[in-house]
Amino acid sequence: METCATSPAHTFFKFSPSSSFSPSPSSLSFLNVYFLKPIKTLLPHCSRQFSRSQCPPRGAKLTRFVASAAPATADDVVAEKLPADIQVTETPEPNSRVRLSVEVPAAVCDDCYRTVIKEFTKRSKVPGFRPGKNVPESILIGYVGKENVKKATIESILKRTLPHAMSSVSGRALEDSVRISTKFPEMESTYSSMKSLRYDVIVDVVPEVKWVPEDGYKNLKIVVEIDKEIDAQTAAEQELRRRHKALGALRIVTDRGLQVGDVAILDISATTIEQDESAAQSIPSAESKGFQFDTEDGDKVLPDFLDSIIGIKRGETKSFPYVFPDSWKQEDLRGVRAQFTVDCKELFYRDLPELNDSIADKILSGSSTIEEVKEILLQKFLEVEQTAKEQATDNAILDQLHKMVEVDIPPSLFEEQGRQLYGAQLLQIQANMKLNEQQLASLSSPKAVKEYLENQKENITNIIKQNLAVGDIFKRENLQILTDELVKEVENSISEFKRHNQEYDEGRVKEQVQEVVEGAKVLEWLRERADIQCFQLDVNTFVVNVRCGACGFMYLCVMLGEVQVHFVGSSGSKSEKASLGLLYRILWLMHFIANVEMAVVEAENPHLGQITCGSLLQQLQQIWDEVGETDEERDKMLLQLEQECLDVYKRKVDHAVKSRAHLLQTLADARVELTNLLSALGEKTYVGIPEQTLGTIKEQLAAIAPALEKLWKQKDDRVKEFSDVQSQIQKICAEIAGTSEPVESPVVDESDLSTKKLDEFHAQLQDLQKEKSERLHKVLEFVSTVHDLCAVLGMDFFTTVTEVHPSLNDSRGVQSKSISNDTLARLANTVLALKEDKKKRLQKLQELATQLIDLWNLMDTPPEERSLFDHVTCNISASVDEVTVPGALALDVIEQAEVEVERLDQLKASRMKEIAFKKQAELEEIFAHAHIEIDTEAAREKILSIIDSGNFEPAELLADMDNQIVKAKEEAVSRKDILDKVEKWMSACEEESWLEDYNRDENRYNASRGAHLNLKRAEKARILVNKIPALVDSLIAKTRAWEQDRGVTFTYDGVPLLAMLDEYVMLRHDREEEKKRLRDQKKLHEQLNKEPDSPFGSTPSPARQPSTKKVVGPRANGGANGSTSRRLSLNAHQNGSRSVNKDGRRDSRPGAPVNYVAMSKEDAASHVSGTEPLPNTP
């Protein structure tokens, strides 16, 4: 537990409650990381009164936690209706997270794709198409880019489906905690291969609060530790003592050492004590220069520190060992043995006025007696005591609550709460120490925030548990808040904003007030039911700081080597800083004036007697004796003589007193002047100044005169230095401001000529010189950029920069160029304008280059003619930054390209028929290779009629033909697989025909030349022929699938392929049947030859060989009996052409493979000789 003393409400309790701060709104971006909005931190100590400082600024939304079903950038987006349902799978994950696996069907993806194409059609300006005209999809995709279309489609899918996916966690999801975990390239890959999309979404959900034990919050037992300082009576007495001390003046101690009640200015250093002295290290946190040490608060600084330095005198140094106590606030120093060295710079005692009713009004404004002061202070501290006790009780309850709940905290909730706490501390540090930009940037870095989150993990987790526990209790117990109370608190908060002239959002203020009031309601409910026990601790580590009435008090606090004087009163607080050296000089001057006053009061009495006039009196006595003067006459004459002597002595003493007073005044003036010079020069001491009590007054004057002379000279030199520096500062400021008026001589403040002030001026001058250098460098960069842009655009550089400012001309020196804000702004605007002009010209030139290349390709322009415009086409794919050639984007170059495009457009119109027929020939060639039959003559006649009619733009006609070519290529690609199998089938049929002829050859096994090659071919042919049935089946299946997908008949040169295949299958079946019949006939013939002679028959002669007949079978070139058979072929060249009938039309009858053989009836009925081999078929 740590002490908190940052505000009156935090003075007397031992717990560290969380404090709110106002973070800046988070920037959200769709398809990027989703950020969790700020959480509202519960502030129990604000339950009594809602403070303006607790409200969030305009634009920041603070909530305990917010559940939402919408993504970060779609809070107000209504879910669009989808053409098909998406599938969402919910998977719980640790830390109160849910993973949503979203599967988007192809129908939704296709709908989003069509939407993206429509948007691109509206926004894109495709060259060659009028605005509003429908651009063919293929041309549009080629213009926009296939990758860009794909990315835009995926983004559209995510934008439309994410609200539907989040509907499954509606009411549970933390607002703006949605993150898409699937990487974009992975989504691109899935979409490209499957034409569907799958992605994962991770969302934080409201954590479930589990009480251990259940309902354990209803009977809390709370032990509250109350410090002894909370006692109102003790605190009031300490405050009265502090105010009384503030009225006393500090006097320099010269004749003794430090004792309790004194104030000392100390330089403190400390090192660790090690066995090896070289290993000793300094302790930075224990070191301080010019530290003001009040002995009455000695133990509050460091326990037992005062006892070690009691008796130290001014200018004395003490060194002593010290062991840091185990309760020391800095953990790494607990128990560390250190060697302290203390140097006493100054020693003061307090000259306190008597504590009576005469100073009551000074102690507390409006009071007349000390008793009244004591009563008012006691009443105020009684209020503080009660508030502190209530606050300590509330914090003890909250501390007990977070120990009783188990919560699986989402990372986004933890990070946001930690950032709030860190931001609050950063604002507090900034308010107290006035950090510079470098320190603020260092403390605001992501590394610093990350370290804070790691170090304060336990504290942040406890705060979140407290918030969730309080909210859960409010819901569980159905607590209610009064509307009147809420309205009153809101009105008070809004009035605070208005009183301080600050903007506010009434809705957000109401929401914040409601959260605070709900928290207060829960704490009140818990206090009523809890068993609360309080006991006091004797801890002396608190500083009481109470504002009361119009009476203020002053205390000195040494910080960062400076003395800071705080004036605290009813109107707030104001602090003024003075250097520590100046305080020394003021105190020394007070001591000097006191000594001078004591010297003036001292006076010597004139001493009259006979010592000076003895001889004269003796002589006068002798004369009186001789004359015989009476005693009365003698007494009278002596009395007169005594009076005259007294008058002379009085005149001499008066004159001497006046002379001494004059000398003292001169000495005082010299010392005052010396003090003023030292103060002005910022010097604490000067070596040549003698001690003020040594020597006579004249000796002191003579001793101080050289020092004054040197200081006067040093002052003159310093004034000159200040004047030079300030003149340079004014000159540079005038250059930055852009003023042309002559700079006046600077006015030097001779009251402050310290080196510190001079260093500040030098630092300011260095900053200005650095800024001037940076500005000059920026101006030169701008001028260089303008020069490069003007060179590329073919513009006059000198005219352009002279229009911005005449000093930017290269003929002038670098240092004479204008560096004002106006010049920089005008240069920046000029660069932006030139870049925009360059971008537009490059876009125009690229469009012209694209048109030129298209026209050249269309009309087969020779390379020699194209090379004339290489300077135009070379930048067709270049970016704006890549174009750096002088004159590359000059207006005459663009005009030349425009003229050439216009000329080619006119030439294109005149050669339209030739170009159109060229594209038609290309289309016919694609169809021929794809074995698709088209009516070429009708197509050409239609093109001629369109061109002659003039109803269509040439560009539209060519675009339409290009679209047809693209579709024809797509058709050819879709037919390629089937056509490849058809070619394989035809090749196999040819091999089958050859194999049949080979089998019929009786001499095929003779050792003739090439017989072994035919044998190898026959083996391969048999393998290939065996594959024909499977090939035909596969081809039929693929053809039918193609026809079902396309909804049209697959034709091969105008003949349905399935018809051809069906006919081939039937013919093959007939041929197999014929072969079977021949084999059966051959067996029958063999059986007949083996039967015995019939009783009436004759036996053939053994010498006579049976006659041999050739087997009747199908041939490739005719029947077995020499009759000509019909051989149907798809085409003569097997490339898609067909025979032309006598009417001049192409025969559209189905063709057959080359081994398709029609067998005559005679051939079918003929017998086969027993010696003729049968043909081998697969």
TrEMBL record:
All copies of domain Trigger factor C-terminal, residue ranges: 369-526
NCBIfam families to which the protein is assigned, alphabetical: tig
Signal peptide coordinates: none
Record EC number: 5.2.1.8
Keyword Isomerase: yes
Reactions catalysed according to its record: [protein]-peptidylproline (omega=180) = [protein]-peptidylproline (omega=0)
Record GO cellular component, one term: cytoplasm
Pfam families: MAP65_ASE1 (PF03999), Trigger_C (PF05698), Trigger_N (PF05697)
Biological classification of the source: Eukaryota, Viridiplantae, Streptophyta, Embryophyta, Tracheophyta
Protein name (record): peptidylprolyl isomerase
Family stated for the protein in its record: Belongs to the MAP65/ASE1 family.
InterPro entries in UniProt: MAP65_Ase1_PRC1 (IPR007145), PPIase_dom_sf (IPR046357), Trig_fac (IPR005215), Trigger_fac_C (IPR008880), Trigger_fac_C_sf (IPR037041), Trigger_fac_ribosome-bd_bac (IPR008881), Trigger_fac_ribosome-bd_sf (IPR036611), Trigger_fact/SurA_dom_sf (IPR027304)
GO BP annotation list: cytokinesis by cell plate formation; microtubule cytoskeleton organization; protein folding; protein transport
Record's keyword terms, sorted: Chaperone, Cytoplasm, Cytoskeleton, Isomerase, Microtubule, Nucleus, Phosphoprotein, Rotamase
Compartments reported by the entry: Cytoplasm, Cytoskeleton; Nucleus
Region annotation (Disordered) ranges: 1085-1178
